[in-house]
Design brief:
This protein has 17 helices and no strands. It has 449 residues and is mainly α. The longest helix has 44 residues. The chain starts with 23 loop residues before the first helix and ends with a helix.
Length: 449
């Protein structure tokens, strides 16, 4: 059990109670809840984990949360799901990582499958659009509140503020690639730490008197995180086999020219090039899926993106919609719904299974580097840049929510987002009532029109 350091003279004795290590069941229930409320793409999902895991439950300290996040941001694939895997793995070994990663995706997989079927069979449904219309400004408020919290905790001097501002300008105005921004920030932190250590060494432990966490700054990494060659080989062989076995099985079952095998092969390749988030890879996927393979039409691709944006889970879940529509439109001798379902499941499998490989293989080495001064200065700069990148996502999302038709301001979205933001920042409203209340407000507003 964690205990906080005794207060020194002049300090208040009021503090949060000591924190217990969560049981596996408690963590399971949280990851399941997260799977249903993780709206808003990576910015919203990271915001929710920041609020729940760092600020409320105190299962992981701020600096360890950011240490894990920095690594996940450098990997291909959905960084928010990888962060869930990483923290679940730290808390409850491999089983915890699997539960965290699977439950992060599982609810959205079923929800999106249902919406995809309704879309393919009947077209757009007005009441579903109304619910998501109310949800979007709430997500914008969740992201804005998270940027505010993370910024206060990580931008501790003018250098960090400057790096965040430059990162925002670079990605928002100049559209520079996300990996380039992160790598440049890391290089600046590495060099800056040599000559201006007090400005760059800002992710170190807080010392005595800070609120303790289950995974605290001063704690050694758990024994199960120690790296070894034998472990690395076992992890690599196991997860490569899990990744590719369904793809090869489909090829043997339906043939190497079948739509389903082509989907498995294509989305496996996409899984290793999705640096910079879903929006960075969507143009490539859209071009191949629409123009080369003909799995769906351009307007269907845009509708699928809209469905993925308004359901919980990673935005890259839009690939499941592409896999579904590919099987539906090109069943090749199968019932359309069966082909679509297999296509959706296979696409989801090959998109997210590699994430477990990246975390279980690289995580022990990242934990081993925790506390390294040179690495910490680099990560401090990367963290500041990430604040700017998340702000870019928040602004991008906000512009689309507040100005859905270009120039006309949506006053409903303004009112809902202001109320939600004020409630979460000032009165500490929980995410779930904010999401549910905003969704019902959107439905009621559309019904009254």
């Amino acid at each position: 059990m964690k205990t906080s350091a005794p207060p020194s003279a002049g300090q208040t004795t009021e503090s949060k109670p000591p924190i217990q290590h969560p049981s596996f069941g408690e963590a399971f229930r949280f990851w399941l809840k997260l799977g249903f409320i993780s709206f808003g793409g990576p910015a919203g999902q990271i915001a929710i984990m920041q609020t729940e895991l760092v600020d409320k439950k105190r299962w992981i300290s701020q600096s360890r949360f950011l240490h894990a996040l920095n690594y996940c941001m450098l990997l291909p694939g959905p960084e928010a799901q990888q962060l869930a895997i990483y923290i679940g793995w730290l808390l409850h070994r491999t089983a915890g990582g699997i539960v965290g990663g699977v439950l992060f995706v599982l609810p959205s997989m079923f929800i999106l499958w249902g919406l995809s079927f309704v879309y393919a069979e009947y077209g757009n449904i007005p009441w579903i659009a109304a619910v998501f219309y109310g949800l979007k400004p709430a997500v914008m408020a969740i992201v804005a509140a998270a940027v505010l919290r993370i910024g206060k905790k990580t931008l501790k001097n003018e250098v960090m503020w400057g790096l965040a501002a430059v990162a925002f300008i670079a990605i928002f105005f100049f559209k520079l690639p996300f990996p380039l921004i992160i790598l440049t920030a890391g290089l600046i932190g590495l060099i800056g730490g040599q000559y201006w250590k007090e400005k760059f060494y800002v992710l170190k432990g807080h010392g005595g008197g800070h609120e303790s966490s289950v995974l605290d700054d001063e704690d050694e990494s758990p024994c199960h995180t120690k790296p070894s060659w034998s472990r690395a080989i076992r992890v690599t062989v196991l997860w490569l086999a899990l990744w590719w076995t369904p793809v090869l099985a489909v090829g043997l079952w339906k043939g190497w020219d079948h739509t389903l095998f082509k989907e498995g092969l294509f989305f496996s390749k996409a899984a290793v090039v999705t640096f910079g988030g879903a929006y960075a890879v969507l143009p490539y996927v859209a071009q191949q899926a629409v123009d080369q393979y003909g799995w769906l039409k351009p307007d269907q691709m845009m509708d699928g993106l809209g469905l993925a944006e308004t359901t919980p889970g990673p935005l890259i879940m839009v690939l499941q919609f592409v896999g579904f529509m590919g099987g539906w439109n090109q069943p090749a001798g199968m019932f359309p719904l069966v082909a679509a379902t297999v296509g959706a499941l296979l696409t989801t499998w090959v998109t997210f299974t590699p994430c477990f490989l990246w975390i279980f293989l690289g995580g022990p080495h990242i934990e081993q580097l925790r506390g390294n001064v040179k690495l910490t200065t680099a990560l401090s700069a990367i963290t500041a840049a990430i604040v700017g990148v998340v702000l870019n996502l928040a602004v991008w999302f906000g512009l689309h929510v507040l100005f859905p038709k270009g120039n006309a301001l949506d006053w409903f979205a303004v009112v809902v987002s202001v109320i939600a933001f004020t409630g979460m920042v000032k009165w500490k409203w929980d995410v779930i009532p904010v999401v549910l209340g905003s969704s019902l407000a959107g439905l009621a507003f559309k019904l009254l029109l």
